[in-house]
Known about the structure:
Helix 1 (6-27) packs parallel to helix 7 (213-235), helix 2 packs antiparallel against helix 3 (80-99) and helix 6 (194-210) packs antiparallel against helix 7. The protein is an all-alpha fold. The model has no long low-confidence stretch (mean pLDDT 85). The protein is globular. The chain has a two-stranded antiparallel ribbon with strand order 1-2. The protein is 66% helix and 2% strand. The protein has one domain (8-31, 46-175, 182-235).
Amino acid sequence: SMQCFPSLVLALSSLLGALALLQLSLYLRVPSRYGKHEEQLCRPRGRLPARCAWFLQELPSFLVPALLLALRSPPRLEPLGCRLLCCLFCWHYFYRTFIYPFFTRGRPFPLQLLFFGTLFCIYNGFLQGYYLIYCAEYPNNWCTDIRFTSGLLLFLLGMGINIHSDLLLRQLRKPGEVTYKIPQGGLFTYVSGANYFGEIVEWFGFAIATWSLPAFAFAFFTLCCIGPRAYHHHRY
């Protein structure tokens, strides 16, 4: 049976933080090459339909924690606060894997970006799942702790913004259309990348609720990864 190695958690979290800074340095000036930004740069050759690509990319973030839980004998997700935290992570990726891809109307997705996205989802799914299932220790009353309750509210608010913004983006395009249109309504009235803003809020909420290095490293990575993309959307 797998055991908790705090040094492994520290190493993987630190590497995630370093990858976040690398993302920031790579994409702060030039946007990553997919979606509307690929018109301004060289077009990658190999691609997959957006629905298939999103499904394959996000799937490991749901499957890896589920597999880690299945491998643990006896299963341990105590107290209730820890169980809820693991459920929040899996709930987000259940939506991203099994619901979001089947409604998206995005452009075909570059295979190169799909490969790196899938690797990241395996890595992060393992780190968050391993920490919560094998290492995390919370007091029995963690559900009533201000960090848990405030973080949970932020997570739910961010997820709500993210899902609502995705809905508005889908409504911009008729079936078969892939041309870009500027979104209006909802939080898009105030923020150019409302869907990205929602996801950043969501993962910082998760980090506060979890109060752990892996979750804060992931929230920081999300900020450094999709924050510059939101900035380029605004400039575009």
